[in-house]
Amino acid sequence: MLTETASDADVATTEFEDLYRAERTRLVRAMLLLTGRVGEAEDLAQEAFVRVYERWSQVREMDSPTGYLYRTALNLHRKRLRRLGVEVRDRLVHQDDVRGGDVAEDRLDLLAAVAALPLAQRQAVVLVDWLGFPPPEAARLLGIEAVSVRGRLHRARLELRRQVGGTDA
After folding, report:
1. Beta strands per DSSP E along 24-156
2. Where in the chain are the domains?
3. Residue 96 carries which DSSP code?
4. What class does CATH assign to 1-88?
5. What does the alpha-carbon distance between residue 27 and residue 85 come to, in Å, rounded to a whole number?
6. Nearest partner of 76 among 35, 120, 115, 112, judged by Cα
7. Which pLDDT tens digit goes with each residue over 8-35?
8. CA 34 to CA 28: how far, in whole Å?
9. 107: closest CA among 29, 23, 41, 45?
10. Coil vs helix vs strand at 143
11. From CA 142, how far away is CA 74, in angstroms rounded?
12. Is the terminal CB of the chain with fewer CB neighbours within 10 Å at N or C?
């Protein structure tokens, strides 16, 4: 009986490790797009993984453990914004000494434009356009209807086109 329990624990640990390896970098990048700060993005990702690990016996049985992970990270981000009273639009610090050519400047312009979007629109852009979640899955992660995600995406893309140009954001 002890061997079966140890084996189940090993399988669960391996499953969690697989999730961690598959999603860590992607989750940090997603949180970076929301926060604009590498350290804060890493902290949010780490805290989300800790919370998922603490509940892994339940999470591993869910239809989408990955979705639960991202939802946890998004909720942690919202909680930090409320607690700290951070003004989302003022959180990107422009660095005068950043040089590196047109590509780097374009990326900074795009990051600044995304950071200037309202939080709801920014979340939709990050989940759908940059992480590749379909709108219904993004809606589930955000706790809203898919039609709301599509509306947020539309408004966000219009604003991004206005700010940085191009045919689509």
Report:
1. none
2. 1-88, 100-169
3. T
4. mainly alpha
5. 23
6. 35
7. 778 888 999 999 999 999 999 999 988 8
8. 10
9. 29
10. coil
11. 8
12. N
Which two three-digit tokens encode residue 23? 């999603």
Backbone torsions φ then ψ of 132, nearest 5 degrees? 80, 15
Query: Residue 75 corresponds to which amino acid?
Result: N
| Distance of alpha carbon 129 from alpha carbon 78, whole angstroms | 20
Q: How far apart are CA 169 and CA 167, in angstroms?
A: 7
Q: What share of the chain is helix, strand, coil (3-state, %, to 5)?
A: 80, 0, 20
Angstrom distance (rounded) from CA 157 to CA 80: 26
What token pair was written down for 143?
Answer: 């706790």
- Which of 34-38, 77-81, 93-97 has the lowest average pLDDT? 93-97
User: Is residue 111 classed exposed, middle or buried when 0-12, 13-18 and 19+ CB atoms within 10 A define those classes?
Assistant: middle
Q: Label residue 11 exposed, middle or buried (CB < 10 Å: 0-12, 13-18, 19+).
A: exposed
What confidence category does residue 165 fall into, taking pLDDT thresholds of 50, 70 and 90? low
What's phi and psi for 117, nearest 5 deg?
-70, 150
Domain 100-169 has CATH 1.10.10.10: yes
